[in-house]
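Structure tokens please, single chain.
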Amino acid sequence: MTKSTVTGPLVTENRFLRAAVEGVVRTPLLIVLIILVIGVQIATDSFFGWQNIRGILQDSAVIAIVAIPVAMLLIAGYIDLSVGSSLALGGVVASLVMDKGAGQPAVAIVLAILAGAVVGLVNAVIITVLGLNSFITTLGTLTAVRGVAQLISPTPRNNFGDQFGLLGVGTVAGVPLSVWIAALLLIAAGIFLSLTPTGRHVYAVGVNRQAAYLSGVPVRRLPFALFVLSGAMSGFAGTIVAARLNSAPAGQLGAGFELVVLTAVLLGGVALTGGEGTIFGVVVGVLFYGALNNSLVLLGVTTFWQAVASGLALVAAIGLSALTHVLRLRLATARARKLVALAA
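Here you go.
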């Protein structure tokens, strides 16, 4: 593959092909989402209440913030399962600074981001420099980082003060601050992936790492940076959760969060096989997951069945990811046959 294959007209054609495939997959999800919210509104008459919508957006905002780098890593052909523990570590570090409201919120946020970035740096070195598998590596750091968080804060801190609390419960124009932050990050990520050469390189690495390398794409530095970003944004998300809860229990904070993020990202059309996905799809997946969980609560479904529904959503998400891959291959094959027929 030549360099023009990565940045030239063929990439533009592939982007149209990718959009067509993801449109086919995401349209049913959007339809199901619409049917879901209308049905729950009819059954409960409370889904469209502002308090309920605000709660969904607040929960979804934290998922979206972490889903951005997780989606980029999946597109590049990697996975990060340590985000839940990185979130916990970030929240715990912030809580140590803000214990009893004695610290400075800005310092707490910066240190939480740095703590998460360190986790991402460790993952990056092990995976991109030493060449270990990302699934196995981040599965290990998931457990190790959770243990570190519990070691440095065996007893949960609380009462972080009103200033820090604004990060979790503050509003701007009636909309939660965390939602504004997530929206800005999603817009920036969408622009990055769609309109910048580096964003296109993320797809190139996921489609064919060797071909991307031969085309001059930094196939090590790019995922290295994405792993660090994943850790940093998870640490930042931890500060939002801690601020909202006004507490940071190391053992429970972000527990299972990696599966929540993975489910939302896969539901949004990001392929486990790499090279496929968009930020718009991530938004759809995150909102669908948030609306689903909220609907179960409004309908009075027990927590046990909520867990069952979450597990089935993950299975469905993996199925959608596989379907995306199959559709992409079939469309690419049909296109190749058409080109051969035209050439003949």
